[in-house]
Give the backbone structure.
Amino acid sequence: MDNTSVLSSYKFFARFYVFGLNPGRAEAVRRMELKSGHRVLEIGIGTGLSLPLYPSNIDITGIDLTAEMLEQAQQRVDHMGLDNVQLHLMDAQKLDFQDNSFDRSIAMFVASVTPDPVAMIREMKRVTRPNGSIFILNHFSQKRSVSSVIEGALSPLAPLLGFEPLFYLDEFLNKAGLNGSKDIPIQPFGYWRLLCFKNKK
Ligand SMILES: C[S@@+](CC[C@H](N)C(=O)[O-])C[C@H]1O[C@@H](n2cnc3c(N)ncnc32)[C@H](O)[C@@H]1O
C-alpha cells in the first residue's frame, strides 16, 4: 500500500462504506475508560462509525487521509449535532499536533491500511501524553492457518482491497516496539484484536 492507493480505494469506498457491525469498536471505547474532559485522538476515523459510541463529555479529534471519508464523518457530526468533535484531513504518519496533546489515541482498522504502520504508532506515541493510553483495533493473520494461505494469495491485491490482508501480529508488535501490549481478542471469532498499551515516555 502507498498513500495514492489508500486515497483511490477509500475515495471509492466512501460512498458505500458499511463495515459498521464490528463489535470491536464498542469494546475499544469501553476499554478506553474515558473521563469527562479527556482529549481523544481517533486516527483514520473514516466515515465516523465510532462517533455514536463516545460519551458527549469528552473532546474527540478525528483525522483521516481521505477527504471523501471525512465528508461522510462530517455529515454524521452535523446530523448528530456533535459539538465535541473536530475533524481534520491529515496523514497519520506525520501528525500536525504538538507532543502530548491527547489523553487517549486509537486507530480502528487502520494499521493494515496505512502504508507505514510503524510511523503511525511512532506519531501516536508522540502526541499522546505520558501514561496516556493507546489502542489499536485490527485484524491479524494467524501463522500456519488456512486463512493465512488465503490472505497470502490476496496480498498482491491489497491496493484494490484497501487493506493488507496478510498482517501478522508478532511482526507488527516487533516492528512497532509494542511487545507487552494487552491483546484482547474480539469475539465471536477473535480474528480482530484490540491492542492496548500505556504510553511510556
Ligand atoms: C478500513 S477504514 C477504517 C475507518 C474507521 N476507522 C472505521 O472503524 O470504520 C481505514 C481508514 O484509514 C484511513 N487511512 C489510511 N491511511 C491513513 C493515513 N496514513 N492517515 C490517516 N488516515 C488513513 C483511510 O482513509 C480510511 O478512512
In short: The two ends are 30 Å apart (CA to CA). Residues 6, 10, 19, 44-46, 49-50, 63-66, 69, 91-93, 108-110, 113-114 surround S-adenosylmethionine (CB under 6 Å). The first strand starts at residue 39 and ends at 43. The helical segments are 3-13, 24-31, 67-80, 117-127, 146-154, 158-161, 169-176.
